[in-house]
Design goal:
This protein is mostly beta strands. The protein has one domain (about 15-465): Porin (Beta Barrel), CATH 2.40.160.180. It has six helices and 16 strands. Strands 1-2-3-4-5-6-7-8-9-10-11-12-13-14-15-16 form a 16-stranded antiparallel barrel. Residues about 1-35 have low confidence and may be disordered.
């Protein structure tokens, strides 16, 4: 999906949006769609001359709104629909025009998150149906400075969201389920879901390009995006300005290989080998993590004699891989089919809810005549509940036999989506998901002695770039 030309990393929600216009483009459509220029990449065009005036000083302004409606027609705890959305504002400054400093970029961005949360209210699933779902808030998202040292090396320092650069699959980004962006395993296992939307982490990231085909990235960040000893939820950092520094260290490294090397335009060549990108990486967090089975004195948490305080286990890690590969291309290179897969696992079953996750699928670009900017996708995701969490379920069956407690296992979702470019500034995206064994097999709190039934979910997202 196209990203902002000036942006080395961009909100996964904005990757589906049209690019910010250049000053020349903006000047041909002063008020964009509002003035009848339907080909403007933004609704407001140059905002009465503001955009080109800012561009003279290296300043780029991006404003977007994403609105979606999701509802489960069958299954879940109850049926119904929720409306939610995210307003995103981002400002970037190229330091050369204003300060004469070559290769510097300053970035600040923030959200207004609003509306309901279908996954939390109706579904109780692990792999939530939308990457936008989060607690309603107005919050800072990213605040960083990046310095490029030539074309082969750059360093970024500040508050960063890792789902913009690490563990990314280009083709997975077309889907709406949350784990198609930031994977299930870190979402479930890291404090408050880790340094990814709607949170970010304070740290340093370095990136090197030894060749056109190889990229190496590594970063060190605070071990938790929420303050120490606070409830394990993004609400513990409600406006994104806590900047905790005493939460250990989160370290991550990733090796990327692209074949063949990308063309200057970023588009696939009309002939030659089918392009693909392959990544392998690992992360480690030095924070303390709650045991899934035992309390601080070694008694099973499910036992009536437990003090209810989980034992602490120091450190956590995972290993992952990502593959994006074009598998078919028509005579028109814009029409092609790509496949992707992204597995991740950890052997630390005692402190993690999820021990393995994988997602994958197929994307068809230019699916219909005259719709070269549209994308159709079929995808899936699987999350495996760890042995530690499953053993705690078994213990509950022993210690509380009158309470229905299924032993959790695997949750799977299937997704079909169609991203339609209506205008350069407007996308709509109908989406269908089917969730099998929600929560890995959770008991339905409203239905005695029954698991939550499989869920059929329909949705529609609208993306507008202002």
């Amino acid at each position: 999906m196209p990203a902002l030309p000036a942006s080395p990393s961009l909100d996964p929600r904005l990757r589906a949006q049209a690019a910010t216009p250049t000053p020349d483009q903006a000047s041909t459509a002063p008020w964009g769609v509002l003035s009848g220029s339907w080909q403007s990449p933004t609704v407001l065009g140059d905002i009465g001359g503001l955009r080109p005036a800012l561009a003279k000083y290296g300043i780029t302004l991006q404003l977007s709104e994403e609105v979606e409606t999701f509802g489960n027609l069958t299954g879940g705890v109850r049926q119904g629909f929720e409306v939610n959305g995210v307003t995103t504002a981002q400002v970037q400054l190229d330091t050369k025009p204003l300060f004469g400093l070559e290769g510097g970029i300053f970035n600040v961005s923030g959200f207004h998150i609003w509306g309901g949360d279908l996954s939390e209210s109706n579904l109780l699933n692990l792999q939530t149906v939308s990457g936008l779902e989060a607690n309603a808030s107005i919050r800072l998202w990213e605040l960083w400075y990046q310095q490029n040292f030539g074309a082969r090396f750059d360093v970024k320092i500040g508050e960063q969201s890792l789902d913009n650069e690490f563990m990314m699959s280009q083709n997975a980004g077309y889907f709406l389920n949350s784990v198609m962006g930031w994977p299930m395993l870190p979402s479930a296992n890291l404090p408050a879901g880790g340094p990814a939307y709607p949170l970010s982490g304070l740290g340093v990231r370095a990136r090197a390009h030894p060749s056109d085909a190889v990229t190496i990235m590594a970063g060190v960040f605070n071990g938790s995006p929420i303050p120490l000893n606070s409830p394990n939820t993004p609400l513990s950092n409600p406006n994104g300005v806590s900047f905790p520094l005493n939460t250990g260290v989160f370290a991550i490294a990733e090796l990327q290989y692209t074949f063949p090397a990308a063309t200057p335009s970023g588009k696939a060549a009309a002939d030659g080998p089918l392009p693909g990108t392959y990544k392998i990486g690992a992360w480690y967090d030095s924070e303390d993590f709650d045991s899934q089975q035992y309390d601080t004195v070694g008694v099973p948490l499910a036992s009536p004699e437990s003090n209810g305080m989980p034992a602490q286990r120091q450190g956590n890690y995972a290993i992952y891989a990502v593959a994006d590969q074009m598998i078919w291309r028509a005579s028109d290179p814009n029409r092609n089919v790509s496949a992707f897969i992204r597995p991740m696992f950890t052997t630390l079953q005692d402190r993690n809810l999820i021990s393995f996750s994988v997602n994958g699928g197929l994307t068809l670009h230019d699916p219909l005549p005259g719709r070269e900017n549209d994308v159709f996708g079929l995808g899936f995701g699987v999350a495996q509940v760890s042995n530690g969490a499953a053993n705690n379920d078994r213990a509950l069956q022993v210690f509380e036999p009158t309470v229905y407690t299924p032993v959790r296992g695997t949750e799977t979702f299937l997704e079909a989506t169609y991203q339609a470019q209506i205008l350069p500034s407007l996308q709509i995206q109908p989406d269908v998901q089917y969730i099998i064994n929600p929560g890995g097999g959770l008991a339905n709190p409203d239905e005695p002695y029954q698991k939550i039934k499989n869920e059929f979910v329909v949705g529609l997202r609208t993306n507008i770039t202002f």
